[in-house]
Amino acid sequence: MNIPDNYRKMIIEELESIEKLCKEASAFExxxxxxxxxxxxxxxIMNFYxxxxxxxxxxxxxxxxxxxxxxxxxxxxxxxIYNTIPESFIDSLFLYLSELRxxxxxxxxxxxxxxxxxxxxxxxxxxxxxFFLYLRGKLKI
Length: 141
Hints:
Elements: H1 5-24, H2 28-35, H3 37-46, H4 52-72, H5 87-105, H6 109-125, H7 128-135
């Protein structure tokens, strides 16, 4: 990745700010709202400097946000496990965001890709089949 330092700095600072806001928020809906800034900053930076890794990060983070948003807005049925979001998913969402920021700060593309893979598995786990595989122990979060 050859992202100019001024853009890298802006992304890192924004991700740090998002992490802080997510930690301070009490409601998951608020945390998810703040999480949306993670792909928002990438979108803004890409208007000035485009890089395949930024595009990949944007796509994965946006897809993750959409999957969680859809999951929390699905009509729930009391007592039915398949329409809930396990606390471990929520914890992982913000842990992975922190790991992604650290990998980006280190400018380590391999680590970035590894974290994006974690996001992909987590995102898949919010789907019907993905959650089924998670419940069967086939997906580790």
